[in-house]
Write a structure and sequence with these properties.
alpha+beta, 126 residues, 6-stranded antiparallel sheet, single chain
């Protein structure tokens, strides 16, 4: 089986530091060689969500398929109390998105967000 590179984005706007720390611990168990960028404070995009957010990029290697990675991320979100109805109240306890899998961009709109572009430059210096 081949190793695949994944780029993840973590985010939270409720008990932000607690949820991101829990996510980092859980992700490290699944992806032992994961590297985390710096935790950033960002404003919510649009009027739907409470501000501020804490966001963080992470890069890992895995032999899991994209579907298996997404399932693991959703389980971590659920384990941290994420509920479907929270979004309607503007609450994001924990969100972990798979932005890239190998060279394939899976979330192009997210990849174009300013804070992600800024962090990519510092996280992966040229």
């Amino acid at each position: 089986m081949n190793q695949h590179s994944c780029l993840l984005c973590l985010g939270s706007n409720l008990d932000r530091h607690i949820h991101l720390e829990a996510a980092r611990k859980a992700l490290t168990i699944i992806f032992p060689t994961i590297r985390f960028g710096r935790e950033m404070t960002t404003e919510a995009i649009g009027n739907t969500f409470l501000s501020p957010f804490s966001n963080q990029l992470a890069q890992c290697e895995t032999m899991l398929s994209p579907e298996e990675v997404r399932a693991a991320l959703k389980q971590i979100e659920k384990d941290n109390g994420r509920m479907p109805e929270d979004k309607q109240q503007g609450i994001v306890k924990l969100d972990i998105d798979l932005l890239m899998y190998d060279d394939t961009i899976l979330k192009p709109d997210d990849m174009n967000k300013e804070f992600i572009q800024q962090e990519l430059q510092s996280f992966f210096p040229i």
